[in-house]
Each structure stands twice: as C-alpha cells, then as structure tokens.
Design goal:
The protein is α+β, with helices and mostly antiparallel strands and 74 residues long. The chain contains 1 helix and 3 strands, in the order αβββ. The protein has one domain.
C-alpha cells in the first residue's frame, strides 16, 4: 500500500521521532491547565513546589509555585 500523499491518523504515544513528549511540548507547551493544590513542598535550595491534582490525570503533577497563577486567565 502506498501511503505517500495520504492523510493518516495515529496516536501521539506511537510517534517514534521526535519523542511524544517533544511533540506535546511543541503543540501544547503553552496551554494552561488547572487543578487543586494538594500540598506544598520545599526543596533544599529553598524552591517551593505545589503538588496539584488535575482532572483526567492518574497522578498529581508537581509545579514550581512561582510558575502558578491563582487568578483565572482572561
């Protein structure tokens, strides 16, 4: 079957090169997510991080507090 020139569909997880992570970052790296802060943690270098539950994700994400917005984006 000659696929050249045809439009096709595939899952992001099936991309071989570049990595799926690189594709997601390129397409959606600037998108905003929202979630509920579960706890705060401080690192040895005094950086403060939030553990955030995001609907649809199986595990919480960890985000530097200085990168979090509290006000709703307009």
């Amino acid at each position: 079957m000659d696929l050249r020139g045809r439009q096709v569909w595939f899952a992001i997880r099936d991309i071989y090169v570049p990595t799926p992570e690189a594709v997601l970052t390129a397409l959606h790296g600037g998108d905003l997510m929202d979630g509920e802060v579960l706890e705060l943690a401080r690192r040895d270098d005094a950086s403060l991080y939030a553990v955030v539950r995001v609907a649809g994700l199986a595990q919480p994400v960890v985000v530097a507090v200085d990168r979090i917005r509290v006000d709703e984006p307009s």
